[in-house]
Amino acid sequence: MTDTRHTKLLIIGSGPAGYTAAVYGSRAMLEPLLIQGIQPGGQLTITTEVENWPGEVEIQGPDLMIKMEAHARAVGTEIIADHINALDLSKRPFTASADSGTTYTCDALILATGAQARWLGLPSEEKFKGFGVSACATCDGFFYRGQEVVVVGGGNTAVEEALFLTNFASKVTLIHRRDSLRSEKILQDRLFKNPKVEILWNHAIEEVVGGDNPRGVEGVRARHVETGQITEVPCKGFFVAIGHAPASELVKDVLETHMGGYVVTKPDSTETSIPGVFAAGDLTDHKYRQAVTSAGMGCMAALEAERWLAEQEQG
Ligand code: FAD
Ligand code: NAP
């Protein structure tokens, strides 16, 4: 059965940007609806310690997101477990069609759909996804107790995933395509000191190797980026941690995007190329991609939506 619900302000996404927009939107009496999507709480729900959220020296990512959700509910946001599969931004009110069959219409829209894990794009990676290939150590690390694992990447995520995996695995090999990491120095320091970690510098993954019966990973083949020499690293788990791509699928043909799909917003603003549509968080941000900056943009989006709606009412 299909039904239609109208709201002044619709927020799509339940990461730090979406929940912060919800807190500000609710306190501005806009009675927002927030659609959570298939990852309620967003990316921080797949990590462990968060150590750079102001006011919390250390907090588990999922706990922080439970607090944000509770805060948004407490100030009056209606939070809906649903996923938007299509948007019509060609006329107002804007229309969002959801998997549940409900059609949401709204006067103003805040897009806070964040980002999703990037994959290497190898056929063998695809073949073993869910059978030893993962993009989430927090979710799958436990399965590799006492076994060898490989992590690919050189950013904060890769280093954090590698460190987290040392809690379970007998050995963690981090494979990076350059000779230096781009992660924060404090994390690098912890990585280099950990006796379970080995780093294979200047190597690119050629292939994930494994068996079919039962299907499972047995190792990876890595190629030296200069000499071409192949090294085989045995492992039961292969964790891809090479960054995230903006979740702009819904709007890529109607809103201006750049730098591989990030939604363009006006300078110092969350306004997009369509009046009344605002975008916040990792969806728009190729530079900082932090929880705190996403939350800041969520705040900006709600304040801008409030002003824009007031201007429309005044004619
Ligand atoms: P996201 O958190 O990506 O949330 C996007 C939301 O949109 C999700 O709820 C999803 O369900 C929803 N959504 C997407 N598409 C749809 C749709 N079609 N319909 C409905 N809903 C939809 N940052 C830090 O500051 N500190 C850290 O310690 C830290 N650790 C991290 C660890 C890992 C493993 C990762 C991956 C990231 C980490 N980050 C950290 C980065 C941080 O998580 C992000 O910057 C932040 O979560 C971005 O927030 P966001 O609200 O823009 O989007
Ligand atoms: P990132 O910073 O973009 O790093 C991606 C890493 O993967 C880079 O080292 C990159 O190599 C490598 N890479 C990219 N494509 C590759 C490919 N095809 N093959 C092999 N390697 C590839 O991504 P991230 O680490 O996921 O971090 C994303 C954002 O979230 C960042 O802003 C980060 O600060 C934030 N974050 C913060 C924390 C924290 O604060 N503790 C934790 C996690 C994430 P090059 O270095 O050669 O480009």
What are the main properties of this structure?
315 residues, binds NADP nicotinamide-adenine-dinucleotide phosphate, five-stranded parallel sheet, alpha/beta, 25% helix, FAD/NAD(P)-binding domain, binds flavin-adenine dinucleotide, 2 domains, 7 helices
Unreliable spans are none
Along the chain, the helix and strand elements come as EHEEEHEEEEEHEHEHEHEEEEEEEEEH
* Helicity, as a percent range: 10-25%
* Name given to the CATH architecture of the largest domain: 3-Layer(bba) Sandwich
User: CATH superfamily name of the largest domain?
Assistant: FAD/NAD(P)-binding domain
Strand content: 25-35%
Q: Multimeric state of these chains?
A: single chain
Q: Major β-sheet, in short? A: 7 strands, mixed
Overview of this protein structure:
The structure is a single chain. The chain is α/β, with parallel strands linked by helices and 315 residues long. The protein folds into two domains: 4-117 and 244-314, FAD/NAD(P)-binding domain; 123-240, FAD/NAD(P)-binding domain (3-Layer(bba) Sandwich), CATH 3.50.50. Helix content is 25%, strand content 30%. The chain is built from seven helices and 21 strands. The chain has helices at residues 16-27, 61-74, 123-127, 137-140, 156-165, 185-193, 291-314; strands at residues 4-12, 33-35, 49-50, 59-60, 78-80, 84-88, 94-98, 103-111, 115-117, 133-134, 148-152, 171-175, 197-200, 203-212, 215-224, 230-234, 237-240, 244-246, 257-258, 262-263, 277-279. The strands form six sheets. Strands 1, 2, 5, 6, 7, 8 and 21 form a seven-stranded mixed sheet that branches. The protein has a five-stranded parallel sheet with strand order 10-17-11-12-13, with helices on one face. Strand 12 (171-175), helix 6 and strand 13 form a beta-alpha-beta unit. Helix 1 runs parallel beside helix 2, helix 1 (16-27) runs parallel beside helix 7 (291-314) and helix 5 (156-165) packs parallel to helix 6 (185-193). The mean pLDDT is 96. The structure holds flavin-adenine dinucleotide (FAD) and NADP nicotinamide-adenine-dinucleotide phosphate. It comes from Actibacterium naphthalenivorans. GO terms for molecular function: thioredoxin-disulfide reductase (NADPH) activity. Its cofactor is FAD. It catalyses: [thioredoxin]-dithiol + NADP(+) = [thioredoxin]-disulfide + NADPH + H(+). Belongs to the class-II pyridine nucleotide-disulfide oxidoreductase family.
